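In response to reviewer comment 3 from the previous cycle, which asked for concrete evidence that the modeling workflow produces usable outputs, we include below a single protein chain processed end to end. The sequence was submitted unchanged, and the resulting structure tokens are shown without manual editing.
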Amino acid sequence: MDSNFYFINAFTKEKFKGNPAAIVMLTEKVSEKWMQSLASEFNQPITTFMSKIDDNSFGLRWFTPTTEINLCGHGTLGAAHILWSEGMVSSQLPINFHTKAGELQANLIQQQIQLTFTIIESQNIQQTEELETIVGLPIKASAWAKDRYIIELENADMVHRVNPNLERMKNLDGAGMVITSRGFDKYDFVSRYFAPKIGVNEDHVTGSAHCALASYWGRICKKDVFFAYQDSARGGELKLKIIDGEKVELIGDCISLMNGKLNS
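The workflow returned the following structure tokens.
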């Protein structure tokens, strides 16, 4: 096998910030078991596997160290970054990704990458004693967004300090929990994302979570353009724009760290 791999940092302009990922450009068909084994070996939050369909269309799959997932924002951002920065696709062309979540498109806009996803609607739910126990801080509001909880706290300081019970979180429905609040300074809102059930105790910057947060905060703030910050240890920022209530654009930066070649 003559496949190249790349390590990137997504949703940041600084090395060792944002969300890291491994990007693998496949040159031949491989098994799902092989992809999972390599993702476990790399031990990155996400390993993205790309396979070329035509000049600007690629198949895309994402694996955590323990399981495959259906949608990953920063893994998609990293894939687009590698295709453009390595000259595999003209920067004048959009990139179409074919995934288990449907077709996704990436565009290069003023040196930033714009991803267009389907918005994830959220519905308010009642707080439960179990949610309060897991979060460990007073909950202002809670919602369910397709496959994860959204928990709103009173302020950004509480989001920064929260230390949820990850073992108990594994027993909840869905992939994980987004904890969020109104933002500070230039940020409209802040968040953190915990997904221990799929092998990611805390994700650094989560594009898919912001597809749901756009819906959640759009309803509260009555607006459709946001600047958001994910307050993980590495941190990262995203621009969001809701399009016709159905799509959301995620706009962010990405940098390359290293590259190599897989041995046969």
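The chain has two domains: 4-119+251-261, 123-245. We consider this sufficient to address the reviewer's concern, and the full set will be provided in the supplementary archive.
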